[in-house]
Request: fold
Amino acid sequence: MRNGDGYQPNPEHKFSFGLWTVGNRGRDPFGDFVRPPMTAIEIIQLLAEVRAWGVNLHDDDLVPIDATATERDAIVKEFKKACEQNGIVVPMATVSLFFHPIFRDGAFTANDPEVRAYALQKTMRAMDLGAELGAKIFVLWGGREGVETDACRRPDEAVKRLREAVNYLCEYNLDRGYGYRFAMEAKPNEPRGDIYMATTGHYLGFIPTLDHPEMVGVNPEMAHEQMAGLNFLHGVAQAWEAGKLFHIDLNDQMPGRFDQDLRFGSANLKSSFWLVKFLEDVAYDGPRHFDAHAYRTEDCEGVKDFATGCMRTYLILQEKAAQWNEDREIRAILEEISGNGNHVPSTAAFSRTGAQQLLAHSFNKEVILRKRLPYERLDQLTVDILTGVR
Ligand code: GLT
Ligand code: MN
Ligand code: MN
Reply:
């Protein structure tokens, strides 16, 4: 029996999957589909079976791009019913601004003003759709917002166009009273040679320049930061600290490879552990979205193993994180390394007298250098916990 050993997903974990993740049919740039298509309703049933909480979608995942209003309404009605019957919620919606060939030069940043206007229209309609399904988070991933050659436009022009588009969408959100929070998702490359806003940090710099910065945060994706050789946890922590972690895309990725979207925890177990520990320590209560897909070798049953595996690994790591936090030796080391600041002049807030005291203070480097920093032992204790020998 799946998850018969206590690692049972519950709604409180807020585990979600995109229609495009479990619905992924295994096509890659070199080979065709290996799995038959699943309808959105079948995907909902699968998600209920593996005990997921939510489903996310692009507009085009559910409604064909050129559907009539009547067709659209019928599809949405049936989908809503299936969600309700299966106890699945729709926490996040997004828009595909990357699949259709019209976006070959980008969407919000494309050189053709008609493409830019179409991208806005398509996004507004996707917002209407998401709102109808109850979504309160709207993700914007600019997969095609980039270049193969910088001859095509000045990159600061792209930044300005992106700002204009997001400002417009924020106003639409207010005007319609949707109450969305936008979550911007970065990626360094693929499908474009270089994508603008390559990392979560780029977006954290961009957001304060918007008309409604409070309405906009980030959706960091583990694989996207790892593709750039970055420490994902650090980006997530910075977003969290800034109050901007509106959503998160969990998956995995080997460095230096193509975009793999691997099952969560399957490639970098230790990084995944630090991430889960962080999310649990700070009590992140947003969706835990797995933006990944099953190996191309899998059939439909294998897709369930994939989805179950993402959630199971999260729950195992959650348990390990609690064990780590309670471990007496680890706690003692953490206390020791945080140092004793009793004799140190206060640097908490600047004052002229405080600065004078700091300037006059004499630091004994010999004594400071004698303090232990037993990070080898600390890390080995982590490895012992992760491997289950502790
Ligand atoms: C696409 C991409 C993901 C984004 C999705 C949202 S679509 O699959 O690889 O990282 O989160 O647009
Ligand atoms: Mn991805
Ligand atoms: Mn993603």
